[in-house]
Amino acid sequence: MFTERSLSPLLSTVRQQYAPAATVLDVETDFDTLPPAVAEDLGLLADRLDPTSYPADWLPENAPTVLEEYAGEAFTIGTPDDGTVVWTTQTEPPTVLCKQRAENTPDDFLNFLIAEAFVQLDCGVPEHFLPFFGEQYPDLDAAVGLNGTEVYQIAAALFDGWVGLQTREVFASWADDDELEPLYDAWIDAGQRLEPRLDELSRAVAHNEMTFPAATEYACAAIKHDLDLPTPFSALDTTAYRDHGAAYAIEWAEKTFAELRE
Predict the structure, then answer these.
(1) Residue 71 forms beta bridges with which residues?
(2) Other CB atoms closer than 10 Å to residue 252's CB: what's the count?
(3) I want to staple 113 with a disulfide (CB 3.0 to 4.6 A). Which of 64, 85, 101, 163 is the partner?
């Protein structure tokens, strides 16, 4: 199920700088969430496992099943909002997992995704939005007032944007490093692919061409690439959000959804 991934000199350099203890594994399947029995097999490759669970009262009544399972006692790695590369600190040392779909991901972008995992590990951010919001997650649910799946989508997007605020300065700094410049170029290229639709987000939502949760997801993905965001998402691209995290996100949601309901 798991095989250790051979890293290029470029990625070996990034790992050494940001997450020298991390193990990088290829997974022979795609997954949203690794089955607990499979996840426990990581114990054969790690020094120890440290499964995490979260209080039930962090979850509102309409929380989707996947979030209930993530919060529960079973050893859970990965959720449907994750991408091609997933990391966890529930193993010692931390583990970076490349899903099977990585085989079809362009090398330059895949290198960036793995390097991004190392940087996120170095920043010490949570590996999921649930511990980010914690006991305040029901407050986000109340502020948004949508169904549980849509609140989940918005929460995942807001968390992604906050993580991007922690990491993007590192990505930008790679422009000045000849060895790491290919990763900088991949970061810029990914941002350029997002940019054309940003100006259209508000119009797309207004014309029911895109849901507000989907627009939030798109805008928050752009934060990582330091792109200009339209209103109301531009209020998330701030030092205040970077510094105050979940509390700021909930205030933004309260104000934004109150205006949407007017």
Answers:
(1) none
(2) 20
(3) 85
SS3 label, residue 59? coil
Residue linked to tokens 């997002």: 194
CB atoms within 10 A of CB 61: 7
Please state, as a whole number, how many other Cβ atoms lie within 10 Å of the Cβ of residue 12.
13
pTM higher than 0.85: yes
* Residue whose C-alpha is closest to residue 15's, from 174, 128, 122, 126: 122
Reference 89, options 59, 58, 117, 60; nearest CA is 117
Amino acid at 121: L
Site of tokens 């914690």? 134
What the block records as the tokens of 175 is 């422009």
Which has the minimum average pLDDT: 82-96, 191-205, 225-239, 244-258? Answer: 191-205
Q: Beta partners for 37?
A: none
Query: Which pair of tokens denotes residue 98?
Result: 């490349």
